[in-house]
Specification:
The chain has about 500 residues and is of the alpha+beta class. The chain has twelve helices and 27 strands.
């Protein structure tokens, strides 16, 4: 009995002293209570319903509620939100000019005079926008502006003293932090779900580092707010990862900091102006970074340079690795489009690049990105598709070297056509090079940062390579180039 009391006393002392020196996670924190937060923020979250007008070639009856569903059916209320029942004697809307339902989404009021933030894809193509508040008031919305690249849209309703949300700081979010989502999944207004921040800076788009959460988000949640436990909006629910069309535990939100920068431009001019420099880029892998002398796999590999564009005029070359742009570090290649896009056109900015084992400081002038211009990277060497440049000659009958490559010189007229000063063309591929994805017609520009001037020089370099190490080729295919790591074939015994 005394032993039992001693153990019990020890446990009491441990719990009593939990706040004095034990870690926070050991103190048995209670789960957060979201009720007050929802009560405070919920009135500023809106339902957005869009319609379009029937046009020539698209006229027809509006969607109707499935047969057999009536008021006694448990799914009646669910289907009613998407397919309002037709009143007796009411004809189906037909013909040009009739409004037909188009979609349902969410949004939230960011100012008491009626500015509403939502997703571009919620209102894209809509002829009419209807905004319904928590208290059932409905307003007709006017699209101020929309940006497809960031999936942001700004809508204005005529009202005053409207409830509004508090805007937080998405940069201060921590992985594992509690968040909640409010929206209209499947048309179910003001639905609240909770979860945690699963990851930050997920690269699922050129211009946005998404917030990943496990808060349940479904079709209709798009455009609704993601809130922290202080009731501040930290993101806009935008996408889900799903194989079924429904929630599978992974959802993505646009950081509110990025969204508000877009809002400022939409308010001012109704559109977003972005900068561009005219390069195609790719990721820098560890296999490429080490042989090139980089301390870590970071930066953006320049795969192509637009002729006469800002990058070419500033001295950037194919094969350069951009490490810093306007003083900001480029940790991943996806950082570059976001930073360049946010730079004012006309600005002269410093650019730090890694070239042939050393850093170089360049300067270039950013220009405005053309509307709806899409900066897509070309196919990487080893990827299917694309026309491989060749020298017009049949493959050489030479035996492949330690890299599994047979190459030949490029005629001067062909070099001028390709806009290159040096290089060799691949005539045959075998072994290590074949496994790395190279193929006949590829143009090799450098080996381990050393320019290739001809086939003889290339073969001499390969004969001296350390076969226990990985080596890097700068390979041109089509209009783009990429570094390809290749490990030589083992020496014959």
């Amino acid at each position: 009995m005394k032993r039992f009391l001693s153990l019990f006393s020890l446990l009491v002392m441990m719990f009593a002293g939990a706040g004095a020196g034990t870690p926070a996670y050991a103190q048995g924190r209670e789960l957060p209570d979201f009720a007050d937060l929802v009560e405070k923020t919920g009135p500023a979250v809106v339902n957005i319903r869009t319609t379009e007008r029937a046009r020539e070639g698209r006229a027809g009856p509006a969607p109707q509620m499935p047969e057999g569903i009536d008021e006694n059916d448990p799914f009646y209320e669910f289907f009613r939100r998407f397919f309002p029942p037709r009143q007796p004697g009411q004809p189906a809307p037909r013909g040009r000019g009739e409004e037909v339902p188009r979609g349902v989404g969410s949004g939230f009021i960011i100012s008491s005079d009626g500015y509403v933030l939502t997703n571009h894809h919620v209102v894209d193509g809509a002829d009419e926008i209807y905004v319904t508040l928590h208290d059932k008031r409905e307003f007709k919305g006017r699209l101020v502006g929309s940006d497809r690249r960031t999936d942001i849209a700004l809508v204005k309703v005529e009202g005053s003293n409207l409830p509004k949300v508090l805007i937080g700081d998405s940069n201060k979010l921590r992985v594992g932090e509690w968040v909640i989502a409010i929206g209209s999944p499947f048309g179910l207004d003001n639905t609240v779900t909770a979860g945690i921040v699963s990851a930050k800076a997920r690269d699922t788009g050129d211009y946005l580092p998404f917030i990943q959460t496990d808060a349940a988000v479904n079709p209709g949640n798009s455009g609704g707010p993601l809130l922290n436990t202080r009731g501040e909006v930290v993101g806009i629910n935008s996408q889900i990862y799903s194989r079924t069309g429904g929630f599978m535990g992974i959802s993505f939100a646009i950081p509110v900091d990025e969204a508000m920068r877009v809002v400022e431009q939409l308010k001012a001019s109704g559109r977003v102006v972005r900068g561009r420099i005219g390069v195609g880029i790719a990721e820098v892998s560890k296999d490429v970074a080490e042989p090139l002398g980089l301390s870590k796999a970071s930066g953006a590999l320049v795969r192509s340079v637009e002729p006469g564009g800002p990058a070419e005029r500033g001295g950037i070359e194919v094969g350069d690795i951009i490490l810093r742009f306007d003083g900001k570090p480029i940790e991943r290649s996806s950082d570059l489009p976001r930073i360049v896009g946010g730079t004012r056109p006309g600005a002269k900015v410093p650019v730090q690049v890694w070239r042939k084992g050393a850093t170089r400081e360049l300067q270039l002038t950013v220009v405005e990105m053309e509307p709806e211009r899409s900066a897509r990277a070309s196919r990487a060497p080893g990827a299917p598709g694309g026309q491989a440049p060749g020298n017009g000659q049949p493959p050489a009958a030479a035996a492949a070297n330690a890299l599994g490559l047979a190459v030949s010189d490029i005629p001067e007229d062909r070099r001028q056509q390709l806009r290159i000063k040096n290089g060799v063309v691949v005539d045959a591929v075998d072994g290590a090079a074949a496994r790395a994805g190279l193929r006949p017609g590829d143009v090799l520009l450098s080996l381990n940062n050393q320019d290739l001037t001809g086939a003889r020089q290339f073969n001499e370099m390969v004969s001296k390579l350390d076969r226990s190490k990985t080596h890097v080729l700068l390979v041109r295919r089509g209009d783009s180039a990429s570094f390809v790591p290749v490990r030589p074939l083992a020496a014959p015994r």
